[in-house]
Design brief:
Shape of chain B: globular
Strand order of the largest sheet of chain A: 6-7-8-3-9-10-12-11
Distance between the termini of chain A: 42 Å
Number of helices of chain A: 12
Oligomer: heterodimer
Largest sheet of chain A: 8 strands, mixed
CATH superfamily of chain B: P-loop containing nucleotide triphosphate hydrolases
Strand content of chain B: 15-25%
Helix content of chain A: 25-40%
Largest sheet of chain B: 6 strands, mixed
Strand content of chain A: 15-25%
Helix content of chain B: 25-40%
Chain lengths: 409, 276
């Protein structure tokens, strides 16, 4: 399946000078003969100095994708397919020594809860000094000076005193700043931020987001921000990958995603975001009926089809493959919804492509007929690999449709 | 849509003692006190949603808990209709707590994991001898319909439900005893936005259909903007601003409210400031 994904244009926003490129990533849990697939054929690229957002609801696979980049998926989870390429090196194939080196020098990671990542009986300075001495081979005195400088750079007031503090003596925002100082101590070129501000107050959140933007500008560091909050993504990111049910359903520049979403899920997600403009005039939002799919749900075709307001008969047999939004503008990103624009048109025929609009046919360098053939070929390829998460045999197909959907108002 | 006031809060204050620092112990000084809620007064009308916002540590949760005496306030007065909540004891207090129900952020913590949803809902009605609770099936089915859940949910246990379903069940359990006031403490904060929107609609429905008053505590101003008729902003235990949602959130008078609004992450990327 990986080979198929690589041959398809636009799957991973093919950027030649990418710092990081993830391709065809698949993460499974459970028994090998009947796996629960949490991440399915996910691709994303990050250019040097770029801030990319990974947005999705709980269970969409965004955190697992982020952790796979550093090979932090613990048993029983496992990466069963795909590549993680960091500057030409395959992270998934690294030996433990190489991996240790990669984690120490090339990437940093911060988590939602900074308290659980700091040792409660070690002073802030000890954390920094240990990191600097191990990763950058500094002497004690050098490490102390650099540690204080790092604290100052992440905006901690009175850094010399804070260098001697214990984690519990700091507020949540200060702890997250310490985590950022630690994660960036060895000057990584990529910072993975998994829900970096979810546990923080809005005012603190704004400060941390500013800090990430500043550090990108000053250090040229690329950042992957994982969040469920489109507000957070919109404040800092250049590009966004939208995940749903283990798949990337849309990618593109944050402005385009916000102004002109090309996947029904992205549209519905944006429509659900609470808005200050409602103040004094509360309106009922439609939200998205039903609930996100569970890992055990096996959905044929498009994973979003059961909740999609624009679903049509062909949607249960389309492959989840990203196609460029606009063939003439590769930077505009790609979407997994083959019906474009998705809000108009009749029943969708997955083999012939979308009938109403010639531009809306899944675009690739090949003619449209070749595209259709390739789709069929891919279907066959998937059937051969026995991919139960994506394309079950007709008899096994099961859509879990919650019976308690709220009536749409 | 706002009826006569039902919940009156006057001058409620709650102070928590802090552990004495070494300096205070050596000097035999009194411990510094932390005023979690400081002289807060407001009213909520029937069929009104009052949004209570503020940063973490601003005292909004302590205030919400004081209203129902999960935390005993040091001073002040809380009245539900004509009844004094703070002076009530025994059966009177139980009756007042029936009339004021709370929904928490984590529905797991408020639902018994070993009871089916139906049993839990029926038990609440049976204990308070609610009319209609003699017929368990019908009582439960009606409650579930009220929160837009199918009757089949009744046979399930909390862990078999999704987060959104569980929170609906928690709301249904609060409704089982026929409350006049609902206190929702970050009730939608842990939910995904698509599910959150459904829950916010549910609170609007409850206000319109049952006429309950709702004190809606949330740290996200935009969530409050979606449901609240009036908004109160807490900062360091004090209520710094209260008024109609459209006025407070569009034309804030207090500088703390302005700071909160300025920090709110807007989903429109074009609006962001200072980004290269």
């Amino acid at each position: 399946m990986t080979a198929v994904a690589q041959d398809l244009p636009g799957v991973a926003d093919a950027t030649t000078d990418a710092l990081l490129s993830v391709d065809g990533l698949r993460v499974e849990f459970g028994p090998a003969d009947a796996p629960l697939v949490a991440v399915k054929d996910v691709g994303l690229t990050i250019a040097p100095g770029e801030i990319v957002g990974l947005i999705g609801e709980s269970g969409s696979g965004k955190s697992l994708t982020c952790r796979s980049i550093m090979r932090l998926i613990g048993a029983p989870g496992r990466v069963t397919a795909g590549t993680v390429d960091f500057e030409g090196r395959d992270v998934l194939a690294m030996s433990s020594k190489e991996l240790r080196d990669f984690r120490a020098h090339d990437v940093g990671m911060i988590y939602q809860d900074p308290f659980s990542s700091l040792n409660p009986v070690m002073r802030i300075g000890d954390h920094l000094r240990e990191t600097l001495r191990a990763n950058r081979g500094m002497s004690k005195a050098e490490a102390r000076a650099e540690g204080i400088a790092l604290l100052e750079r992440v905006g901690i007031p009175d850094p010399e005193r804070r260098y001697l503090s214990y984690p519990h003596e700091l507020s949540g925002g200060m702890r997250q700043r310490v985590m950022i100082a630690l994660a960036t101590a060895s000057r990584p070129r990529l910072l993975l931020a998994d829900e970096p501000t979810t546990a923080l107050d809005v005012t603190t959140q704004a400060q941390i987001l500013d800090l990430l933007t500043d550090m990108r500008r000053e250090l040229g560091m690329a950042v992957l921000v994982v969040s469920h909050d489109f507000g957070v993504i919109a404040q800092v990111c250049d590009r966004v990958c939208v995940m749903y049910g283990g798949h990337v359903v849309e990618t593109g520049p944050v402005e385009r995603i916000y102004a002109d979403p090309q996947h029904p899920y992205t549209k519905a997600l944006l429509d659900s975001v609470p808005d200050m403009e409602s103040a004094g005039n509360p309106v009922r939002r439609e939200g998205i009926p039903g609930y996100p799919p569970e890992l055990t749900d096996v959905l044929p075709g498009c994973v979003f089809a059961p909740r999609c307001a624009h679903a049509r008969p062909g949607c249960t047999s389309v492959p989840m493959v990203l196609q460029p939004v606009d063939a003439a503008a590769p930077d505009a990103g790609s979407t997994a919804c083959p019906v474009r624009p998705f809000s108009v048109g009749g029943p969708f025929d997955p083999v012939a492509g979308s009938p109403p609009d010639p531009v809306a046919v899944p675009v690739s360098p090949q003619p449209a007929a070749a595209t259709a053939a390739m789709t069929a070929a891919e279907t066959a390829a998937r059937a051969q690999t026995g991919d139960p998460g994506d394309l079950p045999a007709p008899g096994e197909a099961r859509i879990t449709q919650p019976t308690d959907q709220e009536s749409t108002r | 849509m706002t009826g006569e006031p039902i919940l009156h809060v006057e001058g409620v204050t709650k102070t928590f003692g802090m552990r004495r620092t070494l300096r205070e112990r050596v000097g035999r000084a009194e411990a510094a006190e932390h005023r979690a809620v400081d002289d807060v007064s407001f009213t909520v009308g029937r069929g009104e949603i009052l949004g209570l916002a503020g940063g973490s540590g601003s005292g909004k949760t302590t205030l919400a808990r004081c209203l129902i005496r999960l935390v005993e306030p040091d001073s002040g007065a809380v009245r539900l209709g004509d009844d004094d909540v703070l002076a009530a004891k025994g059966a009177d207090l139980r009756e007042l707590r029936r009339r004021m129900q709370m929904v928490f952020q984590d529905p797991y913590a408020s639902l018994n994991p070993r009871m089916t949803v139906g049993t839990a809902l029926h038990e609440a009605g049976r204990v308070h001898r609610r009319p209609g609770s003699e017929d368990a099936d019908r009582f439960v089915t009606e409650l579930l319909a009220r929160v837009h859940l199918s009757p089949t949910i009744a046979a399930r246990r909390p862990r078999e439900l999704s987060g959104g379903q569980r929170q609906r069940v928690a709301v249904a359990r609060a409704l089982a005893v026929g409350p006049e006031v609902l206190i929702a403490d970050e009730a939608v904060s842990a939910l995904d936005v698509s599910v959150q929107a459904q829950l916010l609609n549910l609170f609007l429905d409850l206000r319109d259909e049952l006429g309950v008053a709702i004190v809606f505590v949330a740290h996200q101003l935009a969530v409050i903007a979606e449901v609240a008729d009036r908004v109160a902003i807490m900062h360091q235990g004090r209520m710094v601003e209260i008024g109609d949602a459209g006025v407070v959130l569009r034309d804030p008078q207090h500088e703390y409210t302005r700071a909160l609004l300025a920090a709110h992450p807007h989903p429109d990327p074009r609006g962001r400031a200072g980004v290269a």
